[in-house]
Amino acid sequence: MHTALRILFLLLFSILFSCEEMVIYDCNDCVLIEPTSCDLTILTDKEGSPYSEYQVDIYQGRVEDGIIISSFTSLVSASIEVSLNLEYTGVSTIEISGKTYRAINSITPRAKELVDYCELPCFVIKDNILDLKLKHY
What we know:
Strands 3-2-5-6 form a 4-stranded antiparallel sheet, with no helix packed on it. The protein has one helix spanning 2-16; strands at residues 37-43, 54-60, 68-74, 77-83, 88-96, 99-107, 110-114, 122-126, 129-131. Helix content is 11%, strand content 43%.
C-alpha cells in the first residue's frame, strides 16, 4: 500500500511538472497549410476606460532596432498583420493628469503543428496577443 501511494505521488508529480504544454486547442482554428503570417492583436485597455486613446508603436525586433512597422492610436484593442517567427515589440503611451505612462512588451508569433490532436495534421497560431495594458497608474 505504501509503495502504491509513493508510485501514485511520483506519477502525479511528473505530470504536473512535465515540460509538455498543457494547452487545449480548438480544431476549428486549425489550417491545413502552414501559415506565414497572422493577425497580431494588441490590447491596450479594458472596455469603458475613462482615459483617452493610447499612442501605440509596434516595432519589428526590439525598440532599439528602431524598425517601426505600425503606429496608431487605440482605446481598447487593435489588430495588424505580421509575419510569423519574428519578434515584435509594442510600446503604448498615454498621458494622465500631466504624467506620461508607457507599457512595453514583446512577443514572437508562431505556428504550431498539431499532428495527433485533430482529425488531420494542421497548424494553429500561438503567441499572437500583445498585452500593452498599463498595470498601475
